[in-house]
Automatic annotation (TrEMBL):
<dbReference type="GO" id="GO:0016887">
    <property type="term" value="F:ATP hydrolysis activity"/>
</dbReference>
<dbReference type="InterPro" id="IPR003593">
    <property type="entry name" value="AAA+_ATPase"/>
</dbReference>
<dbReference type="InterPro" id="IPR027417">
    <property type="entry name" value="P-loop_NTPase"/>
</dbReference>
<keyword id="KW-0812">Transmembrane</keyword>
<dbReference type="InterPro" id="IPR036640">
    <property type="entry name" value="ABC1_TM_sf"/>
</dbReference>
<keyword id="KW-1133">Transmembrane helix</keyword>
<keyword id="KW-0067">ATP-binding</keyword>
<feature type="domain" description="ABC transmembrane type-1">
    <location>
        <begin position="32"/>
        <end position="338"/>
    </location>
</feature>
<dbReference type="GO" id="GO:0005524">
    <property type="term" value="F:ATP binding"/>
</dbReference>
<protein>
    <submittedName>
        <fullName>ABC transporter ATP-binding protein</fullName>
    </submittedName>
</protein>
<feature type="transmembrane region" description="Helical">
    <location>
        <begin position="194"/>
        <end position="214"/>
    </location>
</feature>
<dbReference type="GO" id="GO:0140359">
    <property type="term" value="F:ABC-type transporter activity"/>
</dbReference>
<dbReference type="InterPro" id="IPR050835">
    <property type="entry name" value="ABC_transporter_sub-D"/>
</dbReference>
<dbReference type="GO" id="GO:0005886">
    <property type="term" value="C:plasma membrane"/>
</dbReference>
<feature type="transmembrane region" description="Helical">
    <location>
        <begin position="167"/>
        <end position="188"/>
    </location>
</feature>
<dbReference type="Pfam" id="PF00005">
    <property type="entry name" value="ABC_tran"/>
</dbReference>
<keyword id="KW-0472">Membrane</keyword>
Length: 592
């Protein structure tokens, strides 16, 4: 299996943290209990081997009394079938229940950890930017966190317990098979324990051939999961942008995109199917031969009278257990291929998270300079001013976008920023917010509370109340405050629907969504409000009304706007132009 050592190392890195976490004692306790139950099952299996010998000997000898007692509870020191079956059933059911309990606890812990690592420090944003530029290990994080973690925890436990159980079975039945099989002379060679050697050779041949036939399945499974996620993402995009697609009459293009992505699934599926066809054909033949192979090998001893019918059954069962344990790789290959693909996806995603976090820490360390804080005190400005020093912004491609030795935004002076499309205005705001990872900055000083409003507002899932108060806790804002903010932004018609749950990003118009975002600003009451074309979807009159409401309701707030229209110029004290001489040259800010 291709680079299986790397896959095992990835699985180890994903597994160990949970069993060393705050839940370690519960996790280790469940793990030990399931292992104990499985070992008990192995022990019962060994006892059942002796039962088979006694049971079939009773049949051969036509001993009805022994037959009945062996079927029921006890006969001459040998436990009966029912005596063995009852604890076997109990152990099996308890093992499944506890294993699934461990699996859901592990999945809950790993999911929470992965979500925290993805969201903390805005790593999700950095990964999103990187993925736009380069096809890396960051595609479809939703699938990795939901589906892949589910499959990883479930399959890891199943494979792990199965491997240990088969290893214990192998150790238990090696001696049994050696003692039962005796010796055989073939072409003048005396071979002791010949059935054990037969099981070993049969299993090795099967393992090698299985690997040769199915070794490409790991890669194909990896690609299949990605293609499935790509199709799901395309369909979700249609749902989320249904109005825009309908207005553009873009149904044909969306249909073609969905069909193309499904075509990738089908093409890869047939590639997998061909591999599965060969693998399943071999496995079926391998298992079919294995079911009669021990009888064929033990038949000479039976026909010569060296072993009884019960001995034949014991020998056959012991051979099957040894051969089955040695053939674990063959029987588990399909699951191993699927598991390896899941491990690869999760491990590469974890590596991407770690790299993004390290890059973010390096950026923050660079930002802090020699001090222990990312905020430096301005020297030539008022303490309440926004001061940025040594600002160098670039695109993910490395192209320099903006260079500014010092930028001072005076408190109490509302500022409008203008510039051509693509000059870097929105990127400047992202840098001020501390989320733009490309480039460098010596220091950023933003005093007090601040709020950034993007051109496209984000409306979270849930009620309208949650959308209006986001990112505040809805319970921390009174109904009167919400109603006052919505009234100021001309959203009175939505007040009765505050507690209604809907897909508000689809239900509300672009202008209404921007009004919702502006109402949030009235509730948050920041010292600094940065608006990135946050009124672009409003008509001129509504835009002026919105700015008027902001000035009246937030007299202590300094507003910094990216705006193109002249309707808002009266609500700003000065205008700054972001000037970029040429597309490949760094821009700079200068007074209008």
């Amino acid at each position: 299996m291709h680079d299986f050592g790397k896959i095992l190392r990835g699985a180890w890195r994903l597994t160990v943290p949970y069993f060393l976490s705050e839940e370690k004692w519960v996790a280790l306790g469940l793990l030990a209990t399931v292992l104990s139950l499985n070992l008990a099952q192995n022990g019962l299996d060994l006892v059942m081997n002796y039962w088979h010998g006694a049971f079939f000997n009773a049949l051969q000898e036509k001993d009805a009394s022994a037959f009945v007692q062996l079927f029921l509870f006890w006969y001459k020191g040998q436990a009966g079938f029912i005596t063995l079956a009852i604890p076997s059933i109990i152990f099996g059911v308890a093992s499944i229940y506890l294993q699934q309990s461990l699996q859901i606890r592990w999945r809950r812990w790993l999911t929470k950890r992965m979500i925290d690592e993805w969201i903390d420090d805005r790593i999700y944003y950095r990964l999103g930017l990187l993925h736009q530029e380069n096809d890396t290990a960051t595609d479809n994080p939703d699938q990795r966190i939901s589906d892949d973690i589910r499959d990883f925890t479930s399959d890891t436990l199943s494979i792990g317990f199965s491997f240990i159980s088969n290893a214990v079975t192998l150790v238990m039945f090696l001696g049994v098979l050696w003692s039962l099989s005796g010796a055989m002379t073939i072409f003048g060679f005396h071979i002791p324990g010949y059935m054990l050697w037969g099981a070993l050779i049969y299993s090795i041949v099967g393992t090698v051939l299985t690997h040769l036939i199915g070794r490409k399945l790991i890669y194909l499974r990896f690609v299949q999961q990605r293609y499935e996620a790509n199709l799901r993402f395309a369909l979700v995009r249609v749902r989320e942008n249904s109005e825009g697609i309908a207005l553009y009459h873009g149904e044909a293009e969306e249909r073609a995109t969905a069909k193309s992505r499904f075509g990738d699934i089908v093409t890869n599926w047939y590639a997998m199917l061909r591999r599965y066809l060969g693998l399943n054909s071999f496995s079926s033949g391998y298992d079919l031969i294995a079911s009669v192979f021990p009888y064929v090998m033990a038949a000479p001893h039976y026909f010569s009278g060296q072993i009884t019918l019960g001995g034949l059954q014991r020998t056959s069962q012991a051979f099957s257990r040894v051969q089955g344990s040695l053939s674990w790789f063959v029987s588990s290959y399909t699951m191993l291929a699927s598991w390896a693909a899941v491990v690869s996806r999760l491990a590469t995603f974890q590596d991407a998270l770690n790299q993004a976090r390290a890059a973010e820490r390096n950026r923050m360390a660079t930002l802090s300079g020699a001090s222990d804080t990312t905020v430096s005190s301005p020297v030539s400005a008022h303490p309440n001013d926004v001061v940025v020093k040594g600002l160098n912004l670039s695109l993910p491609t490395g192209e320099v976008l903006l260079h500014q030795d010092e930028l001072v935004l005076s408190a109490g002076q509302n500022i409008r920023i203008k510039g051509r499309s693509g000059s870097g205005k929105s990127t400047l705001f992202r840098a001020l917010a501390g989320i733009w990872p490309f480039g460098s900055v010596q220091s950023i000083h933003i005093p007090g509370r601040f709020l950034f409003l993007p051109q496209r507002p984000y409306l979270p899932l849930g009620s309208l109340r949650r959308a209006v108060t986001y990112p505040l806790n809805p319970s921390s804002v009174s109904d009167e405050q919400i109603a006052d903010a919505m009234h100021a932004m001309r959203l009175d018609h939505l007040i009765p629907r505050l507690d209604q749950t809907d897909q508000w990003s689809h239900r509300l118009s672009g202008g209404e969504q921007q009004r919702i975002a502006l109402a949030r600003a009235l509730l948050v009451r920041p010292d600094w409000l940065f608006m990135d074309e946050a009124t672009a979807n409003l008509d001129s009159e509504s835009e002026q009304e919105a700015y008027q409401a902001l000035r009246q309701k937030l007299p202590e707030t300094t507003i910094v706007s990216i705006a193109h229209g002249e309707a808002t110029s009266a609500y700003h004290d000065r205008t700054v132009i972001l000037y970029r001489p040429e597309p490949d040259q760094a821009g700079m800010l200068r007074p209008a």
